[in-house]
Amino acid sequence: SRLPAERELATKLGVSRASVREAIISLEIGGLVEVRIGTGIFVTASAASAGTRDRDVGPGPFELLSARKLIEGEIAALAAANASDHDIEGLRQTVRRMESNVDDFGVREESDRDFHLRLAKASGNGSLELVVEGLWAQRAELWGRMQKHFHTTDLARQTIRDHAAIVKAVAAHDASGARAAMRRHIARVVHEFERGLEGAAQIQKATGPSSAKHGRRAILPTA
Asked: How far, in Å, are 20, 30, 43, 101, 184 from residue 198 at the CA level?
């Protein structure tokens, strides 16, 4: 069955549209609803079975991004204080790899993850490396299910610029600048995520039989 529109759900439940939006993402990640662009939000067959009623879908994407903004901002500051020339060159290499493969989603994702893990290693704190590995394990599951709703190459290029700004601050051993650059980067991803989901979750009137079939699909912003 089809759920009401995002705005209507927010009004009925007495919550913000942002809260409804995040709930929809979490439900889709758990396989309980399906967002069909141009048509609406539908409860899946699996959601109707008794076995999925108590399913734990885990933290939502905004929770994850909020945690990353706090943790990785401080990691960037530590990296600026502790990074060796070798660490800095490794970070630059990942940026160059993303630039050279901007249209290759798989390589771009691998390079994106490598950048953040290298940054954690450059912090000099092994425990923080493990924390970032855990955050990215959560990210992989979320992004794998949600990539269809979000835009592509332009966002990838912005991510490359964000990463370059972080590296510049780390190379200058500017802790406050590195922290700010990382926080801007994550905040930008949150903004794009909200904007992309708002369009995807909005129930639209079909303009013809091909509207739902050929609805706009793109990929999730890299971060």
From this structure: 10, 19, 18, 28, 21
**Across the strands, what pairs with 2?**
42
Full-model pTM: 0.68
Q: Which two tokens stand for residue 184?
A: 């801007």
Both tokens of 60, joined, read 């939502």
CA 217 – CA 149 distance, rounded (Å): 6
What does the pLDDT look like over 149-174, one tens digit per residue? 555 678 889 999 999 999 999 999 99
CATH architecture classification, 6-58+198-213 = Orthogonal Bundle (1.10)
10 CB burial (10 A radius; 0-12, 13-18, 19+): middle
- 87-91, 110-114, 146-150, range with greatest mean pLDDT: 87-91
Structural domain boundaries in the chain: 6-58+198-213, 61-194
| Cα distance between residue 207 and residue 216, in whole Å | 14
User: Is the pLDDT assigned to residue 131 strictly greater than 80?
Assistant: yes
The DSSP annotation for 107-129 comes to HHHHHHHHHHHHHHHHTT-HHHH
Does the pLDDT at position 61 exceed 80?
no
Per CATH, the architecture of 61-194 is what? Up-down Bundle (1.20)
